[in-house]
Design a protein that fits this description.
The complex is a heterodimer of chains A (173) and B (509).
Chain A (H helix, E strand, L loop, with lengths): L2 H11 L9 H10 L5 H15 L12 H4 L1 H9 L4 H16 L16 H12 L4 H19 L24
Helix pairs in contact in A: 1-6, 3-5, 3-8, 5-8
Chain B lengths: L1 E3 L5 E6 L2 E4 L3 H12 L4 E4 L14 H8 L13 E3 L21 H10 L7 H14 L2 E3 L7 H13 L3 E3 L1 E3 L21 H11 L3 E5 L1 E8 L4 E9 L5 E8 L2 E4 L2 H11 L11 E3 L4 E7 L14 E3 L13 E5 L4 H7 L4 H8 L5 E8 L5 E5 L5 E4 L4 H20 L4 E4 L5 E3 L20 E3 L29 E3 L14 H21 L1
Parallel strand pairs in B: 1-9, 2-12, 3-4, 3-13, 4-9, 5-23, 13-24
Antiparallel strand pairs in B: 6-8, 7-16, 10-11, 11-12, 14-19, 15-18, 15-21, 16-17, 17-18, 19-20, 21-22
The chains are: A mainly alpha (173), B alpha/beta (509).
The structure holds flavin-adenine dinucleotide and iron/sulfur cluster.
The site of iron/sulfur cluster has 13 residues of chain B, from loops.
């Protein structure tokens, strides 16, 4: 077991008794998810909204993270991860949903907090004195970044022209 | 002949003179040399066989196609991201094509301190000449320098520090800037394009792609072959493969070769296996410019700064600076913070010039395996190396400011903005501590180190395992120390230089 697993396991293991799903709501969603549990999918949607927080009012607006389908993408992406990493990620999701809010004085799950509180919980995670938790934050950010910025609809706002497969500029060396 | 593992079924048994595991820089060269010597060679490659038509220049599809663990591999504590290739051609498919010879000071050091023989500067000079000819290595012309590299050149000149142009292995390059996602224009003179086809053209080589070597068959004294598993496109097992051979060449990379050795329970009486892992850990600083830089376009990494790098034994100048640039996903993951502030930085994307400081590391890690047999990279950056990293980041920031950056962003967990010399003091060794800022390594080395003393190394100076006859390591695992320069040319050259011993062994038995 890696140091990361050990820390997250200890922190989140105690929470395994918690009900983290809602059977009715989850059935349809669960049927189409490959790797995430429905409650994890919901958590990723919340995380994506706060981690990316696209400024839709700008001159060249960015699409919302839900419109891009970040959580669905993350579901497919983590299905390919090595088993130990998936286990760590599962523990991290549980930690973010149930423990991270405690750090800012809330005893409610992350997905039920208002946006400002979610931002504070994420900032606390990013600056945590526990290295594994900071790593966890960076891992979540990287997953969400992949799910969002891969989408061509996000590129005009950042001046990225995208792939140019086919003849490109220059005649070569 | 290339056979795709996904098309195999049942139990496949092959006989050969030699089997090569992995087809990257070391494996491609070993395969070619063995086949050219008239030996029957089977090469096993865990990843798929892809060509220019498959390289669509998108991170979401190229990371899973071309990188181990879709680019998510890290050190044991997740503190350093370790990028490695997977597929025919290995890491040479998505690398940036930089070619630098092993510094002669290090070759001498290896002879003096690590018991390496027959691999000194004079032995290797003609080999480097040949390899550079094979791979068409040439300096990138000044006219082809993209704006990101021009920024570095401007900084070097303004500060009056040491720097210069770099040499690459590319022919017919269209300057697309997508090197790290595979070349859609087939311009890379790499293992995939040059060496593997030459090996196959000899008529003596068979390559099985999508076929992962699980275990080296040996009797504790000599090798008997390799057991492997062929997988379909989604990684599901479809066939078991046995290759019986008198010689086995490990070229599965610095992490893959040692992991395979662990899984095979090779004799290791002096507890050397996996030791000596070096990574060249690096971190980036981004300069924000008023003008557009469009760092994503044009040839990457055509210029370097070597002011803080030399190879003397006790040197305190061990950091190399060059340009680096990522596409949107990579940039977003590396940029500091989250939410609105992060999005604001992303909107500066075309105005960023990015430099990387890479440490010629003395910290030594170890390759181990987890319960499922995957490599675990135990590695922690020591204080001396963290100081080097800080020197490099300060140097990078100074270069960017000297080149005209409005400000420099250090993507630490608590973001740092540098606008003048005085701000540089905030950059310290703390940035190299785990999870203080994103660290990335693209040059893992060591794990099956070279040397004639079995107490201090895993393979002899011939590349052959000290205890298991006929087993060779001919990839990045060999190097007894960090090499401080991009390693592909050294790997190609060492594999070329030492493959003759594998040829002799195959013929002798
Ligand atoms: C993004 C990036 C940019 C880089 N840029 C440069 C550069 O510009 N210049 C430079 O000199 N170096 C560069 N490098 C590093 C360089 O490409 C590598 O150091 C070099 O290719 C390593 O050679 P290798 O033979 O040891 O392993 P690789 O080239 O990594 O090949 C190993 C192969 O073994 C296969 N394998 C692993 N395990 C098994 C198994 N069990 N069975 C079968 N096959 C297996 C893998 O799939 C892989 O194809 C870069 C690396 C990266 C990641
Ligand atoms: S810059 Fe050149 S070598 Fe790199 S991907 Fe584009 S065409 Fe290929």
């Amino acid at each position: 077991m890696s140091a990361v697993s050990a820390t997250l396991g200890a922190l989140a293991g105690a929470l395994s008794w918690l009900r983290v799903h809602d059977a009715g709501r989850d059935a349809a969603l669960g049927a189409r998810l490959v790797a995430l549990a429905p409650w994890e999918h919901e958590l990723v949607r919340h995380l994506a909204r706060r981690l990316v927080a696209p400024d839709v009012d700008a001159e060249v607006p960015l699409p919302s993270t839900d419109a891009v389908g970040v959580a669905d993408f993350v579901d497919r992406w983590i299905a390919r991860m090595r088993p130990s990493m998936r286990r760590d990620l599962g523990r991290l999701f549980r930690y973010v949903e149930h423990v991270a809010p405690l750090a800012i004085g809330h005893a409610r799950p992350f997905t039920t907090l208002d946006e400002a509180s979610q931002d504070r919980a994420l900032a606390a995670l990013a600056a945590s004195p526990v290295g594994d938790l900071r790593a966890g934050f960076e891992g979540l950010k990287a997953l969400v970044a992949m799910g969002y910025w891969r989408d061509p609809r996000t590129w005009p706002a950042i001046g990225y022209p995208g792939p140019i497969v086919g003849p490109a500029k220059g005649e070569g060396e | 002949m290339i056979r795709r593992g996904r098309d195999l079924r049942g139990d496949v048994v092959l006989d050969a003179d030699a089997v090569v595991v992995g087809t990257g820089a070391g494996g491609g060269m070993a395969m070619r040399e063995l086949a050219r010597a008239g030996l029957d060679v089977v090469a096993l490659e865990a990843g798929g066989h892809h060509g220019p038509a498959d390289f669509d220049q998108r991170e979401e599809s190229m990371l899973p196609m071309l990188f181990e663990e879709a680019g998510a591999r890290t050190t044991h504590d997740r503190a350093i991201r370790v990028l490695q290739g997977r597929g025919v051609g290995g890491s040479t498919v998505h690398n940036t094509n930089l070619c630098k010879r092993t510094p002669p000071e290090l070759l001498e050091l290896w002879e003096r301190r690590h018991g390496v023989s027959g691999c000194g500067p004079a032995d290797l000079a003609p080999v480097f000449d040949e390899v550079e000819r094979d791979l068409s290595v040439a300096e990138i012309a000044e006219t082809l320098r993209n704006p990101n590299n021009r920024v570095l050149e401007r900084g070097v000149r303004a500060l009056g520090v040491r720097g210069g142009p770099l040499r690459h292995n590319r022919v017919g390059c269209r300057q697309s800037g997508f090197c790290e996602l595979g070349c859609a224009y087939d311009a890379k003179q790499n293992s995939l394009k040059v060496l593997v086809p030459q090996a196959l053209a000899s008529g003596r080589a068979t390559l099985l792609s999508d076929t992962r070597a699980d275990r080296i068959e040996h009797d504790g004294d000599g090798v008997r072959g390799v057991r492997a598993t062929a997988c379909d496109a989604r990684g599901a097992e479809v066939a078991s493969v046995t290759v019986r051979a008198r010689v086995v060449v490990l070229a599965a990379s610095a992490t893959g070769s040692a992991a395979l050795a662990w899984r095979s329970a090779l004799p290791d009486p002096h507890d050397r296996l996996g030791r000596g892992l070096h990574l060249h850990p690096g971190a980036a600083v981004a300069g924000v410019f008023d003008e557009r830089i469009d760092g994503f376009a044009g040839i990457p990494q055509s210029y370097e700064c070597t002011e803080w790098l030399d190879f003397a034994e006790a040197s305190d100048r061990r950091v190399w600076i060059t340009t680096v640039f990522a596409h949107p996903v990579g940039t977003a993951a590396a940029m500091p913070g989250f939410g609105a502030a992060h999005t604001a930085l992303m909107r500066q994307y075309p105005h960023l010039a990015v430099l990387v400081a890479m440490v010629h590391d003395r910290s030594e890690g170890r390759v181990e395996i987890d319960a499922e047999g995957f490599p675990v990279l135990r590695y922690t950056l020591g204080l001396r190396d963290r100081e080097q990293l800080a020197t490099g980041l300060r140097g990078g920031a100074r270069l960017l400011l000297a080149a005209g950056a409005r400000e420099v962003v250090v993507p630490s967990a608590t973001p740092l903005r540098v606008r003048c010399e005085a701000d540089l003091d905030a950059i310290g060794p703390w940035l190299g501590e785990p999870h203080a800022m994103p660290l990335t390594a693209v040059h893992p080395m060591g794990g099956m180190c070279l040397g004639d003393d079995p107490h201090a190394s895993v393979v002899a100076s011939t590349g052959e395992h000290h205890q298991v006859r006929g087993l060779f390591a001919l990839d990045a695992s060999l190097f007894p120390t960090s090499i401080g320069v991009p390693p592909q040319l050294s790997i190609y050259a060492f594999a070329r230089h030492l493959a003759r011993h594998a040829v002799e062994r195959a013929r002798a038995r």
